[in-house]
Amino acid sequence: GARDAALRPAEPFEKFSPPLANGERAAEPGPPFPLRLPSKAPAFGGAPPEEQHKNVDPLVLELVNAKVVERGPPVQWSDIAGQVSVKAAIEEELLRPLLRPGSVPSRPLRTLLLFGPRGTGKTLLSRCISTQLGSTLLRLSGTTLLSAWKAEAEKILQTVFFVASCRQPAVVLITEAESLLDGGQAGNLKSQLLSYLDNVAASSERNVVVIGTTARPGSIDEASQRRFGARLYIPPPDGEARRHILRRALAQHSCCLSERELAALAQRTESFSGAELLRLCQHAGAARRALPGPHTCYQDLEKAFCKVRPAASQKELDLFLEWDKMYGTRH
Ligand code: ADP
């Protein structure tokens, strides 16, 4: 029935074994997360799990299992260029206490807000966190919930957290979180989400983490922001990281630059997001394939600059920094 469906592992996750706390790999690749119902006090909604399960609509459960449970490949730290201090903060404050309970006296962090321009790797980082925890990842867009799934939005949110609770360890990733937390329009959904955040933060023995991402942190009211245990700014990649992303992406398009050209390119792409850098390389690769004849990779890139510009202006980046100073978590 519905409970069995909630407990069924997402297939692709059976293919890899999660990293263990000490970095060793399990000898036998078993199921990547414990398949069990919550054994102690219920995490969400107050009713015991059996009662909660009675309230779950099987069709919504099917939708959540099909569309919200992620089946992407694992993401490792090395897949993310730069973001050194953010990675260290996540490792220190979120992962280590969760993977080695007892080793750190303070209560582990369970709720995280990642903010920054689009395409800077907020989703990528969240997927990496999930890989490091060997967890089920449930990804939900706040905007989709409010538009395409509006009629069932409350039920869907409830079911997402029910499935997370059944499939621990689990990461619930809410992208475009501002659409659910900007007051006014979201109404019940907002208070529902805030109470889930509080429940996750409070139940220290439970293995559920909630990550909200947003490119518009200013739309989230102050009280809601503060419900996240940490708020981390994910800026566009720095020069070194841009060089890294460009080198890797260009190699995929059989484009080869000298170190000097690469350095010049990294300099020219200040404030480009990781996603925009990839797009730039894609355009250059396409130009390369379309136009046979003598032209260098750098010339192809020159042309690509007409097509791809950074979406975030310097002014917007300054606003992110200001917001970070006021509400961000120091790390
Ligand atoms: P966001 O969630 O911040 O909008 P994403 O995580 O979806 O951005 O990033 C989009 C894509 O851009 C990623 O899948 C990845 O391919 C690339 N990307 C962004 N930032 C980085 C980075 N720091 N290192 C490597 N790739 C990156």
Automatic annotation (TrEMBL):
Domain of life from the UniProt record: Eukaryota
Question: What subcellular locations does the record give?
Answer: Cytoplasm
Q: Where is the AAA+ ATPase domain?
A: 108-238
Q: Which family does it belong to?
A: Belongs to the AAA ATPase family.
Q: What protein am I looking at? A: AAA+ ATPase domain-containing protein
